[in-house]
Design brief:
Helix content is 30%, strand content 18%. The longest helix is centred in the first third of the chain and has 16 residues.
Length: 339
């Protein structure tokens, strides 16, 4: 994080452009929470760059009172990396969707995670292409009926967490668009993390994939089918926190604490800072069927960041040579001037 200023408010990060998303779209909630998170972090707007690719979510930079760059399809990660390396003092946010980030942008995504570039990536996952009017995306469930799969898809989807862990990611968190406090919490923690912070937000598309996350987001079932993980706290869930996660062999098991077989002492404590990602992967892969979907910061570990090491390397090389830039090298020695 860079310099802060006194008493920032969410409105300091908004501009006066009319927001053009469909009524009821989860993007509205994400935008409002991002304004609040930025105000709490206190980074001045002129020290923030918001970069996006193509898609409904990628309109977000237009609604920020910060620097913004609406780039081309799938290339937001490459641009965001360049911005951060060129000016490491900037706080960089990348906004992307499941199509933009994981299809045409998939290669850039895994490499910005692998390099551990110090930026904050909001991956809004509605499991559909919304901007191009309802084709299936890389995260659409097997059997998804869409305009480009009228008889149902015959392929398995990407799970973003798997890609992050496969690329040796240092930060992964998840939220759902209706849990505003959790989303603000993970955005703030992601911004404070030194490295590539991937924040997946399960989001609804009212027009082309309405209700895709209802099995976990509906108020009637949410408490039992999601778990809010907090570092250092017991892995408890349920309306009355009467359920918990325990270890069973090499896996996890959801249990009730009021049936006499298990007590609070059996419930695992979340350690987001553990370097070994074995348990983090298990937590991130829970799907709300037998085990609740994990929300909150799942992984947050220290590792060298790409732009910092590039800067250090560059300064060491510059110190060994008399040239600091290309112009000095060209003008060194004998030159010819027209008279």
């Amino acid at each position: 994080m860079t310099q802060t200023y006194n008493n920032p408010e969410p409105k300091d990060y908004k501009n006066d452009i009319a927001v053009r998303w469909c009524p009821g779209c989860g993007d509205h909630a994400v935008l409002n929470v991002l304004h609040k998170a930025m105000a709490e972090l206190g980074v001045p707007p002129h020290m923030i760059a918001v970069v996006s690719g193509i898609g409904c979510s990628s309109r977000l930079p237009y609604y920020m009172n910060t620097y913004g760059f609406h780039t081309i399809h799938g290339r937001g990660g490459a641009i965001a990396t360049g911005v951060k390396v060129a000016n490491p003092q900037l706080t960089v946010w990348q906004i992307s969707g499941d199509g933009d980030c994981l299809a045409i942008g998939g290669n850039h995504f895994i490499h910005e995670v692998r390099r551990n570039v110090d930026l904050n990536l909001l991956l809004l996952n509605n499991k559909i292409y919304g901007l191009t009017k309802g084709q299936f995306s890389p995260t659409s469930d097997r059997g998804c009926v869409s305009k480009s799969s009228p008889y149902g898809t015959t392929e398995d989807p990407f799970i973003p967490a798997e890609l992050v862990f496969g690329a040796r990611g240092t930060f992964f968190a998840r939220g759902i668009d209706v849990e505003l406090k959790i989303n603000q919490e993970i955005m703030i923690e992601g911004a404070r993390h030194k490295g590539c912070s991937v924040i997946e937000i399960l989001q609804n598309c009212m027009i082309f994939n309405n209700g895709i996350h209802n099995r976990i987001t509906d108020k009637a079932v949410r408490a039992n089918r999601t778990i809010h993980l907090v570092h250092g706290e017991k892995m408890l869930f349920g309306k009355n926190h009467d359920m918990g996660l325990v270890q069973e062999g090499f896996g996890l098991k959801a249990v009730r604490l009021d049936d006499g077989d298990y007590t609070i002492d059996d419930v695992l404590i979340h350690d987001a800072h553990c370097q070994d990602n074995f348990l983090h992967q298990q937590l991130a892969m829970m799907d709300g069927t037998n085990l609740p979907v994990a929300l909150g910061v799942i992984r947050d570990v220290d590792a060298p960041s790409y732009e910092t090491d590039v800067t250090v390397q560059m300064r060491k090389i510059q110190a060994k040579h008399r040239y600091r830039n290309l112009r000095e090298m060209i003008l060194d020695g004998d030159t010819w001037e027209r008279k």
